[in-house]
Amino acid sequence: MAERGARLLVVDDNKVNRLLLMRSVELLGHRVASAENGRMALEMLRAEPFDLVVLDIEMPEMDGFQVLEHMVADANLRDLPVLVTSSLEGLAHVVRCIELGADDYLHKPVNSVLLKARIGSSLEKKRLRDQQRDMVRRFATSEVAQDMQQSGFALGGRRIHAAAMFSDIRGFTSLAESQTPEETIELLNSYYTLMFEAISSHGGVVNQMIGDGLMAIFGAPLPLQEPSLSAVRAALDMQEMITLLNVERAALDKPAIRIGIGISTGDMVAGYTGTHQRATYTCIGDTVNLASRLETHTKAIGRGIVVDGATYAALENRIALEKFEPVTFKGKSVPTEVYAV
Amino acid sequence: MPTPVIDPATLSELRDTAGADFVNELATAFFEEAPGLLAELRAAWGAKSAERFRRAAHSIKSNGLTFGASTLGAMARELELGGLPADTAPLDALEREYERAAAALKELCHG
Questions:
Q1: In angstroms, what separates the C-alpha of B20 from chain A's closest C-alpha?
Q2: ipTM of the complex
């Protein structure tokens, strides 16, 4: 958001103060809305996007301190800059506002030059913060970005119950050799766009992309009610999207692609691994390895989606699956139950 | 030299930053709101509610100072910080000062 043309909310119960503040903000080239008390202000802040709040303290129904407290407790409003304007005297009020997260405290009547400077600097800070968040979102997922914002970045893991998914494109290497590099990258971009859409619409998080393969987690960093069911539903959507993509490709005289998906459910360790300079959010453990083995197994049994016994059990027959011969995968001492869609 | 009812420097600065026409509208809003605030101050005194009294005085102070009504602002400030007075004499004085300030402001804005 540019510094000019930002959207501000002026909150003041006193009409003269409110009109004057709105006028001052408009003269700075910003758009402005107003609220007469804290309760109204919070309703508006939760309903529409704003870039900055100019907040009075003394108000009926809900005062400015309470508004600040509610904003701090709300993940969506926590980072919204607030300038407090009040004619309350005493340093204690100023300190309390700053401690509750206000950017600054301006005494009324507000000096217009000071107001302009404070609004400009608060909007600039917000712009940089938004930019940083967008950047984190591009390289991580919004769930990881949110997790990092809430609990901060720390290397180390925790044990979670989740579903792991691996997916890749069949015969991708020979496909890549038969077309130009540009075509390959374009195909990968369409493929990833469709897969991300299918996975995230069911609450999953893609945390690895390696060539034509991807790994996704259902149930971390944010918990899901039914990770196994979400993962299988996402897999069904992914296969359907590939079918649609193939219709488009056929029209362009390009060969169809096929994908294999393996899903397993169980305990795993999730967290940030790497170094403080470069880290990634990932999940590790037997469950994850098993999902990868199941994905490879799709080729052996000629099916698009293969899941383990724990995933099958969690579905409680809500999605029809066919039972296959149990397989003893490499590195496992006991056979794994295998089911396919 | 006596303090002017409306400080000319404050009013002219307000006009410079917000525009003279807007200041006229703002003064009209003040004339509409202030009697309610003065009545609330008196009602709060009658109900012996120090908190309501402080709030109403606070609003009058804030609005008075906006227009450069320095004496009105100072009197309201004393009430805001001083708590409930023993009798209504300070309220009568504040109302008289408001009438003076409003008349002067009307003169300056619409005269």
A1: 12
A2: 0.91
